[in-house]
Amino acid sequence: MPVYSVSHVENVRICVIMVGLPARGKSLIAQKIVRYLLWLSIKSKCFNVGSYRRLLTLREDTTFDFFDPENEAGLKVRQEAVNQAVKDMMKWFAEENGVVGILDATNSTRNRRSQLLKLCRENLIEPIFLELWCDDKDLILQNIADVKTTSPDYVDLDSEYATNDFLGRIKQYEKYYETMDLAADADLTFIKLVNVTSQIIVNRIESYLELRIVYYVMNLHIKPRSIWLSRHGESQYNLTGQIGGDLDLSERGWRYAKKLPELVLKSLGEEHKHTNLTVWTSTLKRTQQTASFLPYQKKLEWKALDELDAGECDGMTYEEIETEFPDDFKARDDNKYEYRYRGGESYRDIVIRLEPIIMELERQENILIITHQAVLRCLYAYFMNVPQEESPWMLIPLHTLIKLEPRAYLTLVLRIKADIPAVSTYKEKGTSQLGEGSVNEGSVKSRDLISNSAT
Amino acid sequence: MPVYSVSHVENVRICVIMVGLPARGKSLIAQKIVRYLLWLSIKSKCFNVGSYRRLLTLREDTTFDFFDPENEAGLKVRQEAVNQAVKDMMKWFAEENGVVGILDATNSTRNRRSQLLKLCRENLIEPIFLELWCDDKDLILQNIADVKTTSPDYVDLDSEYATNDFLGRIKQYEKYYETMDLAADADLTFIKLVNVTSQIIVNRIESYLELRIVYYVMNLHIKPRSIWLSRHGESQYNLTGQIGGDLDLSERGWRYAKKLPELVLKSLGEEHKHTNLTVWTSTLKRTQQTASFLPYQKKLEWKALDELDAGECDGMTYEEIETEFPDDFKARDDNKYEYRYRGGESYRDIVIRLEPIIMELERQENILIITHQAVLRCLYAYFMNVPQEESPWMLIPLHTLIKLEPRAYLTLVLRIKADIPAVSTYKEKGTSQLGEGSVNEGSVKSRDLISNSAT
């Protein structure tokens, strides 16, 4: 019997067809959806038509007039780019068992959309249109600023030139853009977001997975904010190498707790030092003790942030587990993401119970989370798009504050180490020994900036 | 630090103002929302204007022409009913710390709605309009049939007379009904459901709690279905009076597992014997063994259906807990819903982890759930509206199949006892002794039909 998870999808295959003028945030939303679904073990991929078009053209040939609907050469190239993207997507569905494919393009006309619709239906794929509609000028200018600095079409070009060219390109699309409409598109499955989530129109959403996507999108906002992550300070069990339990901080752990307010201030910088954070902890003493010197009024305790439940192994050291349950010890090393402790949890179980936390985090602004090694790995994996086979092995040392700053197409990461020693709780594959506190952080750091190209 | 739960609401107070013609399912949805929120410990109440109107009038004076907008006497009484309902609601917000009040009435005109809006704003209550719009004749006739048999306006009256009078009443409302509109009502927070959830329009939803309500409503469907609940068969630990663990069934437990397919068939009746159920179990062996003889192909395993985690008390008998942790034992008896086992869970914790299960159950059709005593109590409490102080004390014996059949305004309950003896796992307050297997079921049975009056 397979373990149920949020990823349970009953052979459904969905194609999310993005709809919207340039600079409406299509790529941003498409990439967020992919990241969220991958984190839930739902095989997803974004197919960006702009990237295909760039392979067929030179940058100097694609100034705004290239996008004129009267420009026949341009039209031909753009049609070819769509064809190739769609072909690759269909191949991915068929050969790689894709579940949610996202076609990231303007798909501006009913004619284009009905072609895609037909193609999906022929291939037994559920089409769902996701339109981003926006008439808020500030929002559009903000999106243009993001695209300018990240799109291969404009990177390294003069800023004013890029803005003007991009505005010219938008004008070309506006000539023939047809918005989704409850009357004209009554038979289609679609979501239309007006000015981010200020109005939402949902038509004929039926399957579980479609509704998950809709709900996720409804929770997004675009206000700038940061998320801080920290493990609790060193605990009594950390000192003895035992896992689990609900023990107090060690003397050095208390020192970290007292230092934490200063680290947070440092991460905020002088200009933002009065920013008000909300603090989330688990229900375990060591996270609450770590939070106890923080000057913020709003502190919330979540059971869902409790450490991975080690079941029968709770309170044991890795050496003891290796001796007492050698098969389990090996099984966990072989597939740490899926391995569930006897009477306890797996990393996959944690992801399922963290899902409402992620949803709430997307809604909130500045949150500081003090939690545990395995939970923090799963949260970090969500924000930084770390694959499942790597996330349980990530190095997240004690006495280190991590600040994540999600931007349009990348997440900035700042790590501040407190100058307070702590044991290492990092166990490498194939050994029951813990590290010496200075394990190579290379593989983590290389992921610290995730970036993706826009249209 | 208070324990975070889904019920966390940051001093928000919300008034859900229902909008819709008669027979659109307003009362049904209003009552479901209240039940869901109460289950999540969010203080909620429905104020049904029809009930207030009935206190002011005689039934024989309220035939359809009473609702004619030209009938001044009728108008006056109906305005008075609204006034009284709103007054009581405001009193409830102010004096009883209400969080979500629902005003269940047609609220057919912009004029009426703007009066309510003004009143809410004056009282610092967030107004959210929930319109049920429907032009599907079959759906309307089905709703009329429900109202006819349950509304005090029609109960015991001739069926044809009731239908005609009610259709007449709807016509009166149609004369001046104004639907919610994205243009005309652009400044209001509203949800409009068109033909149940076939189209959904969401305008200016901002707060967490508002979005929870929207998401819940989006998951509802009205197809007829049943839900079956059973505990696992008697387990080895049941025999020794120990709690928790992951042990096999006892010999009698296996007999129950073999009998279960027959009980399910019996509950389906001859006519529906080919109904295809989906079986959900926990990840623990005793529930999967109990499911193992069921002939249904789709069986899913949910970690969220695992038994309440007794933490340090896992594997102990109640006597042992009373001896070893006397203060905890007493604390649990004093407030069983809130008491969290050392390193384990409380009933409240279970409700939080069951919330996605409830959402999924609302979406699904025929589901048979095989789970554990505490989890089953929480699920049952949701469907049957059992208050928190009672739910942890409910009698849910072993070797008994429960079938719940949600109807418009009540849930039918069928309990089928297998003729296979089992120990009692029922512990009464103030003792560590388990019952003898034939505890008084009175207090449970009296709740077995929940019904509410419609408009």
Itemize the secondary structure elements and their pairings.
Two copies of one chain form a homodimer.
Chain A: E1 14-19, H1 26-39, E2 44-48, H2 49-56, H3 72-96, E3 100-104, H4 110-122, E4 126-133, H5 137-150, H6 159-174, E5 190-194, E6 199-203, H7 208-219, E7 227-231, H8 236-240, H9 251-268, E8 278-281, H10 285-291, E9 299-301, H11 318-324, H12 326-334, H13 347-363, E10 367-371, H14 373-384, E11 400-406, E12 411-417, H15 442-445
Helix pairs in contact in A: 2-3, 11-12, 13-14
Commentary on this structure:
The structure is a homodimer of 455-residue chains. Helices cover 40% and strands 14% of the residues of chain A. Chain A is of the alpha/beta class and 455 residues long. The first copy, chain A, folds into two domains: 206 residues, Rossmann fold, CATH 3.40.50.300; 191 residues, Rossmann fold, CATH 3.40.50.1240. In chain A, the strands form two sheets. A six-stranded mixed beta sheet of chain A has the order 2-3-1-4-5-6, sandwiched between helices. Chain A has a six-stranded mixed beta sheet with strand order 9-8-10-7-11-12, with helices on both faces. In chain A, strand 11 and strand 12 form a beta hairpin. In chain A, helix 2 packs across helix 3, helix 11 packs across helix 12 and helix 13 packs across helix 14. The longest helix of chain A has 25 residues. Strand 6 of chain A pairs antiparallel with strand 6 of chain B.
